[in-house]
């Protein structure tokens, strides 16, 4: 393949034949940057034009100066801590706080982050407010209120199936140009569940135990601080409480929705995409907090917002330590499934769960 050199920059034809553009890339290998960034195009130039790449050169020189500066940490060190030492590989390090600050090498930038979140939010609203109602109407259902609780739970399940498929597809489409992605991005693996230090099931079970503790401590702290939750409004369990029926299919439909599909979608978006993207611009603990606030806000529940943020923080740090989305999915699903099961048991014992939830 023919290539022309200008300083540390290489201009090469695109792989697709017939293209009229060249890509200008920096020889990032000489700067010690990750292999995944070596072939990322920095600027574009037309065939026959003089290759100058002024912006690319300026950026490379700035990076090189940072690498050579004696008192400044290399750029890579600011984004990601070095891998665990052999000694750390043999320990869980539950109380080694620096290991909760390990970031990811994220190949995309802020533009893809903003586009991905906006596109996902738009697709979520489109499916929930347009597509699903249209499908229901096409099926001949004109009055949803007249349906049985079991039928309503199945409609909720169908909507969640669409939301999950479309939402994950949107995120993947935004990042398609950066494939293949690094191994620890969007990783969902069920292998080596108890292997130190990343065993997903170990961290997952720990999170399942700690989730009620974290939320309980949050509620206690808010109570002692004088915080008064908003009166009325929509809570995260209100919608479920309205369609609870002592019927197996109703329970199965709602359980699949809340404990399986919702965690898959939300963990992919808020931990797999948002958290990792933010860790490119801020320390991992800060990225966990910011993504947790976004997670809480996305539920549109002012009443449950503090508890949702607390749960999000737990989910975020579980992902930081396990590097596996299966971990926060397990914790999230266990929490939602437990809440749903408790509501069904209360309803079976004669408690009016709608009134109970309304009282907070």
TrEMBL record:
Q: Which GO terms describe its molecular function?
A: endopeptidase activity
Entry keyword set:
Membrane, Transmembrane, Transmembrane helix
Question: What are the TM regions of this chain, as residue ranges?
Answer: 113-136, 200-227, 239-261, 281-298, 305-322, 334-353
Superkingdom to which the source organism belongs: Eukaryota
Give the CAAX prenyl protease 2/Lysostaphin resistance protein A-like domain ranges. 252-337
Q: Which GO terms describe its biological process?
A: CAAX-box protein maturation
Q: Which Pfam families match?
A: Rce1-like
Segments of this protein annotated with the region Disordered: 61-89
Which protein is depicted? CAAX prenyl protease 2/Lysostaphin resistance protein A-like domain-containing protein
Q: Which organism is it from?
A: Coccomyxa viridis
């Amino acid at each position: 393949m023919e290539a022309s050199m200008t300083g540390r920059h290489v201009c090469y034809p695109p792989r697709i034949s017939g293209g009229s553009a060249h890509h200008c890339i920096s020889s990032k290998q000489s700067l010690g940057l990750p292999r995944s960034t070596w072939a990322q195009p920095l600027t574009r130039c037309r065939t026959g034009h003089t290759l100058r790449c002024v912006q690319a050169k300026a950026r490379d020189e700035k990076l090189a100066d940072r690498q050579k500066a004696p008192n400044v940490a290399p750029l890579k060190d600011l984004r990601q801590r070095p891998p665990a030492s052999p000694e750390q590989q043999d320990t869980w390090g539950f109380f080694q706080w620096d290991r909760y600050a390990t970031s990811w090498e994220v190949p995309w930038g802020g533009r893809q982050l903003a586009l991905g979140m906006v596109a996902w939010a738009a697709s979520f609203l489109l499916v929930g407010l347009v597509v699903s109602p249209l499908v229901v109407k096409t099926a001949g259902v004109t009055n949803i209120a007249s349906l049985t609780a079991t039928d309503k739970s199945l409609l909720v399940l169908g909507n969640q199936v669409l939301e999950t498929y479309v939402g994950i597809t949107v995120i993947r489409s935004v990042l398609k140009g950066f494939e293949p992605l690094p191994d620890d991005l969007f990783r969902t693996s069920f292998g080596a569940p108890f292997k130190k230090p990343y065993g997903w099931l170990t961290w997952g079970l720990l999170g399942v135990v700690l989730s009620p503790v974290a939320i309980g401590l949050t509620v206690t702290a808010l109570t002692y601080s004088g915080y008064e939750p908003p009166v009325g409004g929509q809570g995260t369990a209100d919608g479920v409480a309205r369609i609870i029926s002592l019927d197996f299919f109703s329970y199965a439909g709602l359980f699949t929705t809340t404990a399986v599909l919702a965690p898959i979608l939300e963990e992919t978006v808020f931990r797999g995409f948002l958290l990792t993207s933010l860790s490119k611009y801020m320390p991992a603990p800060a990225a966990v907090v910011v993504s947790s606030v976004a997670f809480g806000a996305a539920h549109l529940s002012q009443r449950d917002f503090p508890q949702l943020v607390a749960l999000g923080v737990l989910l975020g740090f579980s992902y930081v330590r396990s590097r596996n989305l299966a971990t926060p999915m397990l914790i999230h699903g266990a929490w939602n499934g437990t809440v749903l099961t408790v509501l069904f048991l209360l309803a079976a014992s004669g408690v009016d769960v709608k009134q109970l939830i309304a009282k907070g």
